[in-house]
Amino acid sequence: MAENTQVDVSRLTFERAIEELETIVKRLEDGKVPLEESVTIYERGEALKRRCEELLRQAEARVDKITTDATGQSTGTAPLDVQ
């Protein structure tokens, strides 16, 4: 785990960040981590959570909805309104 804390969270892919976050959650739930390390990895988990949320927001902003005509044929795309 120590080597993971050296990796800049802002450089992680969504998949890598979520994988590391899941590992942190499992370690904390196990309850066998010393207090100081628990605090440190919890803080890293918070940063990973923010990174995942940021990447999801970016992905949502890039998603387009497919527009169709009355017959159901695709006519193009338009920005997806996720609000």
TrEMBL record:
Q: Name one GO cellular component term.
A: exodeoxyribonuclease VII complex
EC numbers, comma separated: 3.1.11.6
Record-linked Gene3D superfamilies: Exonuclease VII, small subunit
* Reaction(s) catalysed (UniProt annotation): Exonucleolytic cleavage in either 5'- to 3'- or 3'- to 5'-direction to yield nucleoside 5'-phosphates
Q: Where in the cell is it found?
A: Cytoplasm
Which keywords belong to this entry? Coiled coil, Cytoplasm, Exonuclease, Hydrolase, Nuclease
GO molecular function per UniProt: exodeoxyribonuclease VII activity
UniProt keyword Coiled coil, yes or no? yes
Q: Which residues form a coiled coil?
A: 42-69
Which GO terms of type biological process are on file? Answer: DNA catabolic process
Where is it mostly found?
cytoplasm
- Which PANTHER family is this protein grouped with? EXODEOXYRIBONUCLEASE 7 SMALL SUBUNIT
* NCBIfam families xref list: PRK00977.1-3, PRK00977.1-4, xseB
Question: What job does this protein perform?
Answer: Bidirectionally degrades single-stranded DNA into large acid-insoluble oligonucleotides, which are then degraded further into small acid-soluble oligonucleotides.
Question: How does this protein assemble?
Answer: Heterooligomer composed of large and small subunits.
HAMAP family per record: Exonuc_7_S (MF_00337)
Q: Tell me the protein family, please.
A: Belongs to the XseB family.
Output this protein's name.
Answer: Exodeoxyribonuclease 7 small subunit
